[in-house]
């Protein structure tokens, strides 16, 4: 089994809170609109940002900052 994509069940509440904070940061920075739904590739990048320890604000910048 490839553990690089694995998140332990006990990490899910923290990931959920982090993802909500990421979304709020991205909307506040006007990177995305309130109705934004990430595609599969973006979800994968977000998982990697979370696992790497980026803050939600850092992840929003990494995800969208170069595009705006």
């Amino acid at each position: 089994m490839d553990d690089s994509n694995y998140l332990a069940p006990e990490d899910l509440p923290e990931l959920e809170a982090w993802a909500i904070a990421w979304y709020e940061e991205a909307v506040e920075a006007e990177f995305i609109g309130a109705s934004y739904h990430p595609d599969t590739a973006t979800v994968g990048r977000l998982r990697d940002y979370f696992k790497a320890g980026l803050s939600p604000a850092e992840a929003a910048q990494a995800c969208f900052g170069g595009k705006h």
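DSSP finds three helices and no strands in the chain. Residues 34-68 form one domain.
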